[in-house]
Amino acid sequence: MKKIIYWLCALSWSASLLGMEPVLDFVLLTSSDGQKYKVKVTTAKQSYVLKLIIEGSGLDDPISLDDINSRTLFQVIKYLKIMAKQKPLDLGQLPPADLLAIAQAADLLEIEPLRVSAVEVLNAAPQSTKKDSKKFPRGPRKQSHSLSKIFRKDNENSDNE
Predict the structure, then answer these.
(1) What pLDDT digit, counting tens, does each position of 85-134 carry?
(2) Cα separation of 42 and 69, whole Å?
(3) Alpha helices in 18-125 (DSSP H)
(4) Among residues 84, 33, 31, 22, which one has the least CA distance to residue 59?
(5) Separation between Cα atoms, residue 39 and residue 53, nearest integer Å
(6) Is 28 helix (H, G, I), strand (E, B) or coil?
(7) For residues 83 and 46, is the Cβ–Cβ distance under 8 A?
(8) Are 96 and 125 in contact (CB under 8 A)?
(9) pLDDT of the residue at 132
(10) Phi, psi of 125 (to 5 degrees)
(11) pTM of the model
């Protein structure tokens, strides 16, 4: 293992002496909550924004994506890998909240095929019906009034002591 590290360091040092940049195969992406993901450069370059960052600043520093959380970034990377293999995307099994987050991240990173696929699946999702809305009543529950009465009684008792 030490020999491999030695040769890699020697290769990098000799490349810098010759004025060549060492070829790095991976880029480090950091989510808004600090999670880091190691991604192949060819996979990351499917995003127009990441491609510009990689070509402009290089691969030395991690690329911080402050508007994308780790869950969404993980899913975006997963679908970038699928897209790299020229396979069709299947976003149908994801919940609408995740689809929306993926669509927003794809829009931010300018990954047009992923954004279009996520929006199409979101638009095809069935809309809620009146029957579904009865499951989630609106307004305060009656129990909250009884809790406020109990709270008032406890405060009155503590004031009398």
Answers:
(1) 888 878 888 899 999 999 999 999 999 999 999 999 888 877 654 454 44
(2) 22
(3) 41-44, 48-57, 70-84, 96-109, 112-124
(4) 22
(5) 14
(6) strand
(7) yes
(8) yes
(9) 47
(10) -65, 140
(11) 0.62
